[in-house]
Design a protein that fits this description.
The chain is mainly alpha-helical. It has three helices and no strands. It has a domain of about 55 residues.
């Protein structure tokens, strides 16, 4: 933009009135287009930064969830010893269902 303005400043004094008007109009259009392009670039930059931030948060949540699932799976394996008590079996089944529900919720969230 600066170089276009500099060239126009040099050419305008030796140009006819009609030519000066054309140069000024073209220079104005060029400035408007340049300003619009800068705005579009800034908008795209902001969108990219927001998207990167969301992905960073999602990756951290995914890591946390995977660690929790591993820990929970290890705990369930440790508790998988045969039990004779029906109440303990029901509690173990309820716990496994809850973990499965959390896993399916996470899968649905990560699919979107």
């Amino acid at each position: 933009m600066k170089s276009a303005g500099t060239v126009a400043d040099k050419v305008i004094p030796s140009t006819s009135k009609r030519g000066r008007k054309g140069i000024k109009e073209q220079l104005d259009r060029l400035r408007k287009n340049h300003s619009r392009l800068q705005g579009n670039i800034n908008d795209a930059r902001k969108d990219l930064q927001a998207t990167l931030s969301k992905w960073g948060n999602l990756e951290q949540l995914l890591d946390d969830l995977q660690a929790w699932l591993r820990d929970t799976q290890e705990k369930l394996k440790a508790e998988a010893q045969p039990r004779l008590d029906l109440g303990e079996k029901k509690a173990q089944l309820d716990k496994a269902k809850a973990i499965q529900k959390v896993g399916s919720l996470f899968e649905r969230c990560s699919a979107t």
